[in-house]
């Protein structure tokens, strides 16, 4: 009987091609917008998350504002921080802007950063040529530096910078390496920066306190306990004063972004669902017209022995067919839209089985819900009245 | 001959604004297997209501109706549908063929609801269409057939499930006289083959084809002359 009902439903859909097409279109638009929006938001989220991860998902950044008596962290604090469980190393950052002289070129306002050996070990792909800062450079406050890609090109066009001597804020410094070209991130790039051992940088720049430290984790899953341990140390270092430091965990930022985009997905899917609702109303409208048009047919079928349930099934299957058809076409269109968006907005396109199930399930549900009332109406028609209907 | 239809004091009333309208007033009717009965009456006599009750499309207000050993009283919609499918073959004045289906598919319709397998349906429908003289028109759509041919398809549809009663409502009403006579001839032949036929009509000339005429007037039955 189910097969017969399907056959009858299909024949009716084919018979009213234009009307069926328009109704399918209603569902198609709803489903495709849901699929496209969800997929685009998920893709964009993935791209943002991976960008942030590339800044260091395995890194916790400490900013120390300090107190009036202690305006930053000292060597002893760094040692304490590096001893926290699951921490593989700490790298302080000292930064400032100063002048740089090579040959007869004078550049002012050059960004100088002080780092340690841990930084060059962790960010191993940062170096293009030469060597980075090592532990002896830090301990001996060696006057050496690693130069950024653009800066090297500008000052040493055609000659090898490694081994050359430049003046940084009046101090002679030997260049030992060149950095790779940095693609840049939301935190800026290192292309116009000179990196020195942080001890030398403090001396050169006249900085007395370490106010920024990157803590590298050996296990990023332990970020919460590490953050707690770091906070404990920093609290005691700054005498439990408030607002003396901040601990910034990249994983937290990723989590926050995940929350925001999750809400965004829900919101957009909700808005797109409205169009699916309109599509559902379209189905209901079409089915009601169809029932009215075919009143005589329903009467005849009842006279020939069709049970109310069989009439209901026939009309229900018709609306589910229309809706499923729209759902499948909408899925395809939605994927095409999302794929184009992925190419244009440059993110990786991924579609989950969950999305497909959602599209097909949603459209089947719409067909059932909005087809039920017309189908019931058909099944309840009185055969005498229906046969008399002209 | 066995009795296949028995109506005892059938009453049908309609209520219009608290006013009671008696359409059928204590109808008593017995029909035996193999009969060809005409229910003859003018419009407004209650003959359509009687036909609806005989065809189990409607239920009486009171009285007892037994059709092929089924007491039709207190049956629900589903059971009435089954009875219609098994016991009644309808022929309507306006043929009532589905325009989207071929002659063959139209004849197959009642067998779908009887649960006959597709192969058997095709075979049986083709057989019956051959019997009513439309072997070469099986795959035609209703609008490709003349009125007489369409009514033949409808008649084929009504007998294809071998129902207890063939119930025809003004079967020649939409046909010209000559075609009408051919259709009546077909009914006669079907009756000769042993089928029980009940025909509702207002036309005395048509009623003459039957073996027994029952007159209905203002909701009351009178046994008429047998032709």
UniProtKB/TrEMBL annotation, chain A:
Q: List residues of the ABC3 transporter permease C-terminal domain.
A: 271-383
Q: Which InterPro entries match?
A: ABC3_permease_C, MacB_PCD, Macrolide_Exporter_MacB
Pfam families assigned: FtsX, MacB_PCD
**How the protein sits in the membrane?**
Multi-pass membrane protein
GO CC annotation? plasma membrane
Q: Where are the transmembrane segments?
A: 260-284, 320-345, 351-373
The keyword Nuclease is annotated on this UniProt entry: no
Keyword annotations: Cell membrane, Membrane, Transmembrane, Transmembrane helix
Keyword Transmembrane helix among record annotations = yes
* Molecular-function GO term, any one: transmembrane transporter activity
Q: Which PANTHER family match?
A: ABC TRANSPORTER PERMEASE YTRF, MEMBRANE COMPONENT OF TRANSPORTER-RELATED
Which family does this protein fall into? Belongs to the ABC-4 integral membrane protein family.
Protein name as annotated: Putative ABC transport system permease protein
Species: Desulfosporosinus lacus DSM 15449
Source lineage: Bacteria, Bacillati, Bacillota, Clostridia, Eubacteriales
Automatic annotation (TrEMBL), chain B:
Q: Which residues form the ABC transporter domain?
A: 5-226
Annotated GO CC locations: membrane protein complex
| Signal sequence bounds | none
Q: Does the keyword Signal apply?
A: no
| Alphabetized Pfam families for the sequence | ABC_tran
Q: Cell cycle among the record's keywords?
A: no
Alphabetic keyword roster: ATP-binding, Nucleotide-binding, Transport
Q: Which InterPro entries match?
A: AAA+_ATPase, ABC_transporter-like_ATP-bd, ABC_transporter-like_CS, MacB-like_ATP-bd, P-loop_NTPase
Show the stretches that span the lipid bilayer. none
Instruction: Cite the GO molecular-function annotations of the record.
Output: ATP binding; ATP hydrolysis activity; transmembrane transporter activity
Q: Which SUPFAM superfamilies match?
A: P-loop containing nucleoside triphosphate hydrolases (SSF52540)
Family (UniProt): Belongs to the ABC transporter superfamily.
Q: What is this protein called?
A: Putative ABC transport system ATP-binding protein
Q: What is the species listed in this Swiss-Prot or TrEMBL entry?
A: Desulfosporosinus lacus DSM 15449
């Amino acid at each position: 009987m189910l097969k017969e009902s399907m056959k009858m439903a299909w024949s009716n859909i084919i018979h009213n091609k234009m009307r069926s097409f328009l109704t399918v279109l209603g569902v198609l638009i709803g489903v495709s917008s849901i699929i496209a929006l969800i997929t685009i938001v998920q893709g964009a989220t993935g791209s943002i998350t991976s960008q942030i991860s590339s800044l260091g998902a395995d890194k916790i950044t400490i900013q120390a504002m300090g107190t009036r008596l202690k305006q930053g962290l000292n060597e002893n604090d760094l040692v304490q921080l590096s001893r926290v469980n699951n921490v593989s190393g700490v790298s302080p950052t000292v930064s400032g802007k100063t002048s740089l002289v090579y040959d007869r070129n004078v550049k002012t306002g050059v960004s100088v950063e002080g780092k340690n050996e841990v930084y060059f070990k962790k960010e191993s792909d940062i170096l293009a040529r030469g060597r980075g800062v090592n532990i002896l450079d830090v301990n001996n406050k060696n006057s050496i530096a690693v130069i950024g890609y653009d800066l090297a090109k500008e000052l040493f066009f055609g000659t090898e910078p490694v081994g050359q001597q430049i003046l940084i804020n009046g101090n002679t410094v030997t260049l030992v390496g060149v950095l790779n070209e940095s693609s840049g991130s939301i935190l800026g790039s290192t292309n116009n920066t000179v990196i020195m051992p942080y001890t030398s940088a403090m001396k050169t720049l006249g900085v007395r306190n370490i106010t920024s430290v990157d803590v590298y984790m050996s296990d990023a899953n332990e970020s919460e306990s590490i953050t707690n341990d770091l906070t404990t140390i920093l609290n005691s270092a700054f005498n439990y004063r408030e607002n003396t430091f901040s601990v910034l965990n990249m994983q937290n930022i990723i989590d926050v972004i995940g929350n925001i985009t999750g809400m965004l997905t829900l919101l957009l899917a909700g808005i797109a669902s409205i169009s699916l609702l309109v599509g559902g109303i379209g189905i209901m409208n079409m089915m009601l017209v169809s029932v009215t048009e075919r009143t005589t047919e329903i009467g005849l079928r009842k006279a020939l022995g069709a049970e109310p349930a069989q009439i209901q099934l026939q009309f229900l299957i018709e609306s589910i067919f229309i809706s499923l058809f729209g759902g499948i076409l909408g899925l395809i269109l939605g994927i095409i839209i999302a794929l184009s968006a992925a190419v244009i907005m440059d993110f990786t396109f991924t579609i989950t089985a969950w999305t497909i199930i959602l599209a097909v399930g949603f459209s089947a549900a719409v067909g059932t819900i909005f087809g039920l009332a017309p189908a019931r109406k058909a099944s309840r028609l009185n055969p005498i009245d229906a046969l008399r209907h002209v | 001959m066995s009795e296949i239809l028995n109506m005892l004091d059938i009453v049908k009333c309609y209520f219009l604004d608290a006013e009671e309208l008696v359409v059928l007033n204590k109808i008593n009717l017995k029909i035996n297997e193999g009969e060809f009965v005409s229910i003859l009456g003018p419009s407004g006599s209650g003959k359509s209501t009687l036909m609806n009750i005989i065809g189990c499309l409607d239920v009486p207000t009171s009285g007892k109706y037994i059709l092929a050993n089924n007491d039709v009283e207190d049956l629900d919609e589903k059971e009435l549908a089954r009875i219609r499918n098994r016991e009644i073959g309808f022929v309507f004045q306006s043929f009532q063929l589905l325009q989207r289906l071929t002659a063959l598919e139209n004849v197959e319709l009642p067998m779908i609801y009887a649960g006959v397998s597709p192969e058997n349906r095709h075979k049986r429908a083709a057989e019956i269409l051959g019997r009513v003289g439309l072997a070469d028109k099986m795959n035609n759509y209703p609008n490709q057939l003349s009125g007489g041919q369409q009514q033949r398809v409808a008649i084929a549809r009504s007998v294809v499930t071998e129902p207890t009663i063939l119930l025809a409502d003004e079967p020649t009403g939409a046909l010209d006289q000559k075609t009408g006579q051919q259709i009546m001839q077909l009914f006669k032949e079907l009756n000769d083959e042993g089928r029980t036929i009940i025909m509702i009509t207002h036309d005395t000339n048509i009623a003459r084809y039957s073996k027994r005429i029952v007159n209905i007037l203002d909701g009351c039955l009178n046994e008429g002359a047998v032709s």
